[in-house]
Design a protein that fits this description.
single chain; mainly alpha; Fumarase C, Chain B, domain 1; 18 helices; 8 strands; cytoplasm; Aromatic_Lyase
């Protein structure tokens, strides 16, 4: 069980909550902060102080005063009117992450919710009541209003939730638990939806996949390296220490680890003096992606423990400030950086695929790894497919964060588009995983032509893992199922926290 405090949730803990069904509990100290914050809201209402979002309208309506008897209906109207997300829903994992992250933010004690709201959100996590949340409709400031409103709908017994993998009406979910839906009171609707938890949730799930994929790209590249008699000198530690990037040095170290004991890799002058960049520069290119992953992880873990709603309540209600922590710019940038970093892993992988299948470049392997070149096409179109995915990634990698469209009658005149960035990062990562699955499939075929008995023990073990899900090319067949099975295998390792090499 993981205790949520509002302050120290990690990506690894969230992975366990999302993919290993780890349950949560609420920290006692956090709940004390929640109670104090709520008492402050109740005093504001009773004393008829004018505070944004408690007894005023929202956005451009912030100058409209709301009477005391209407402060609760105000919150209900907010949720219903803002639940206008569109398009296909996020995955259940992202929905679950959104509930966890919104709850964690509320536990910081700056938002003014009642304890029942936190307790009910915790129940949604532990009993897997996951809202159905459309993907499109958020500008990323004032937070993820539309998608988070769909989350809040389930809390009040409206909207839809996932039941056995299908959307179901949430009107009866609390009745089934012997409970009534939450009736929102002053500020609670705004506290639930004013935040960056959609872009952050999708960002964390994508980061989990991307980090594992970056590690997997190294052993996949190592099998390709053996297939092409790669020159090991390029991974010499002195080369990488001379430049000084720790991530580059770590990739080179892991490549030496994977290839230790290989009788297929070569040294300078044995077959050639140097390799093409897609082999020789693996530490430099992959290392640069690791630098970006480190940046993204840091920003995500800050945001996972951040108060991102508005207004925020300090000093037991003596200080209530309307600020802009809901603005998603930090995560928007992080997601755009993540897109580029993962796209590059796919770019260089596709170039290695080309070297494996091109008879002018593959060191005597059969053309297109075909069992009968000419009569059978072998892996010819697999390279086409990889090239197509890489090209699509170049379009998706266009930064979402450089765009902004004013909203709420220009009150909200600059927005982050961070949720679009997070969705595109997910799409790029899915494409990259399939490109690397194609490389793994081609490299497995190629290295078996060379002689699997000459592989390093570690890459040979990985070859065995590939062969459990995808057989060799004995004759032409429909290769789509092979690639999808390898991609699913790679994804499964991400969700289960399997790392084939400890990060240096």
């Amino acid at each position: 069980m993981i205790t949520l405090t509002g302050n120290d949730l990690t990506i690894e803990q969230l992975r366990r909550i999302l993919f290993e069904n780890e349950t949560i509990e609420l920290d006692d100290g956090a709940m004390e902060r929640v109670c104090k914050s709520r008492a402050a809201v109740d005093r504001i209402v009773a004393e008829k102080k004018t505070v944004y979002g408690i007894n005023t309208g929202f956005g451009k309506f912030s100058d409209v005063s709301i009477s005391e008897e209407d402060v609760n209906p105000l919150q209900l109207h907010l949720i219903r009117s803002h639940a206008c997300g569109i398009g296909k829903p996020f995955s259940e994992a992202v929905s679950r992450a959104m509930v966890v992250l919104r709850l964690n933010a509320l536990l910081k004690g700056f938002s003014g919710i009642r304890p029942i709201v936190a307790e009910r959100l915790a129940m949604m996590v532990n009993e897997k009541i996951h809202p159905v949340i459309p993907q499109q409709g958020s500008l990323g400031a004032s937070g993820d209003l539309a998608p988070l409103s769909h989350l809040a709908l389930v809390l009040i017994g409206e909207g839809e939730y996932w039941k056995d993998g299908e959307p179901a009406d949430a009107s009866s979910v609390w009745q089934q638990k012997g409970l009534s839906p939450v009736e929102l009171q002053a500020k609670e609707g705004l506290a639930l939806i004013n935040g960056t938890q959609t872009m952050t949730a999708q960002g964390v799930v994508t980061y989990i996949e991307a980090e594992t994929l970056a590690l997997q790209s190294e052993w996949i590249a190592a099998i390709t390296f053996e297939s092409l008699f790669g020159v090991m000198d390029a991974f010499h530690p002195a080369v990488h220490a001379a430049r000084g990037y720790k991530e580059q040095m770590a990739v080179a170290e892991r490549m030496r680890w994977w290839l230790d004991g290989s009788r297929l890799s070569t040294v300078q002058g044995e077959k050639r003096v140097q390799d093409a960049y897609s082999l020789r520069c693996i530490p430099q290119v992959h290392g640069a992606s690791w630098q970006t992953l480190a940046y993204v992880k840091e920003k995500l873990e800050i945001e996972m423990n951040a108060a991102t709603d508005n207004p925020l309540i300090f000093e037991d209600g003596e200080v209530v400030i309307s600020g802009g922590n809901f603005h998603g710019q930090p995560i928007a940038f992080a997601m755009d950086f993540l897109k580029v970093a993962v796209a590059e892993l796919a770019n260089i992988s596709e170039r290695r695929i080309e070297r494996l299948v091109n008879p002018a470049l593959n060191e005597g392997l059969p053309a297109f790894l075909s069992p009968e070149p000419g009569l059978q096409s072998g892996a010819m179109i697999l390279q086409y497919a990889a090239a197509s995915l890489v090209s699509e990634n170049k379009t998706l990698a266009h930064p979402a964060s450089v765009d902004s469209i004013p909203s709420s009658a220009n009150q909200e005149d600059h927005v982050s588009m961070g949720t679009i960035g997070s969705r595109h990062a997910r799409d790029i990562t899915e494409n990259a995983r399939r490109v690397l699955a194609i490389e793994a499939f081609c490299a497995a075929q190629a290295v078996e032509y060379r002689g699997a008995d000459r592989m390093s023990p570690r890459t040979a073990e990985r070859l065995g893992a590939i062969r459990k899900v995808a057989g060799p090319i004995d004759e032409d067949r429909v290769f789509n199922p092979d690639i999808e099975r390898i991609a699913a295998f790679l994804l499964g390792e991400a969700y289960h926290g399997i790392k084939q090499r400890v990060l240096s």
